[in-house]
From TrEMBL:
This is Uncharacterized protein. InterPro entries: DUF5953 (IPR045997). It comes from Hyalangium minutum. Residues 1-21 are annotated as: Disordered. It holds the Pfam family DUF5953.
C-alpha cells in the first residue's frame, strides 16, 4: 500500500510528511530491536517476543483488538485491525489504523531516539 510506504523515512526527496495524518516510521534498519514490528497493516502477526515488546495484549486497553485477534500455538498473535480489508479511503478504517499506532508507539521505532 502506497500510503504505508510513504510513512517510512527519512526521505531524500518527495513528500516529507506521511499521508492521511499517519505517523512517520523509521526505516527498518533504524529500529533498535528486531522484534519490534516495522509498521501496521490490516492483518498483523506478532511473535511472542514482538507482542511483549509492544505491550500486547493489555486487556484493559486492547479489548477492541482482542475481538479480532487469535493466539498462535507458539504464543504469538494474529491481529486484524478491521473486519474488512483495510481501506484507507474509509474513515472508520483510517481511524482504526491511527488508534492502533497511538496504542503502540514503539511500532515503527517511533518511541526511540
Amino acid at each position: 500500500m502506497r500510503d504505508i510506504a510513504d510513512q517510512l523515512g527519512p526521505k531524500m526527496y518527495g513528500r516529507t510528511e506521511p499521508p492521511r495524518g499517519l505517523p512517520a516510521l523509521k526505516l527498518p534498519r533504524n529500529i533498535p530491536a528486531q522484534e519490534i514490528p516495522h509498521y501496521l497493516g490490516w492483518l498483523n502477526y506478532w511473535s511472542a517476543a514482538a507482542a511483549m515488546a509492544i505491550g500486547f495484549p493489555d486487556p484493559a486497553r486492547d479489548a477492541e483488538l482482542l475481538m479480532r485477534a487469535h493466539r498462535t500455538p507458539s504464543g504469538g498473535w494474529v491481529v486484524q485491525l478491521t473486519d474488512a480489508p483495510l481501506d484507507l479511503d474509509d474513515p472508520a478504517h483510517l481511524d482504526a489504523l491511527k488508534r492502533a499506532y497511538e496504542r503502540f508507539p514503539v511500532i515503527g521505532g517511533r518511541d526511540s531516539p
